[in-house]
Design goal:
The protein is an all-alpha fold. The chain has a domain of 93 residues. The chain is 59% helix and 0% strand. The radius of gyration is 17 Å and the shape is globular.
Amino acid sequence: MAATKRVRTPRAWLERRRERRTADEWIAHGFDSRFRWRVAELTSDAERRLLARELRGVVSEVYGTRLPGPTPLRLGALRPHVLLLDAIADRLARLDEPVEASGILAVRELLASPGSVLYAPSGDAEPLLRAVLARLDEPGEGR
């Protein structure tokens, strides 16, 4: 018997997106026990592989082994911190070691936010990159 996928309406899709956004805000502040379903999505192997691949793409662009993407990176500012970017990608790729959902959100913010140290001239990237790496391992409070 073939598995059938549930067809979602645009309204259902938008509602689920809103639910995720709300859950992400709570998880980022340490309230992950209320949103186990979202924690499972964020810390899934597929999500971790995706984020690790995106970070490795950033590293390749910084090294100059990949053509620049559509969003210009702060190559000069990131070059001294490429080992930290690699460390974050490596930590995500170690699927046998759990990560915190708030850390995944921090990586997503790093990669997607226009104000991120990857894109915006906002000073030294090292402290933020170290904080992102630490958040992957920082135990959530589960409130």
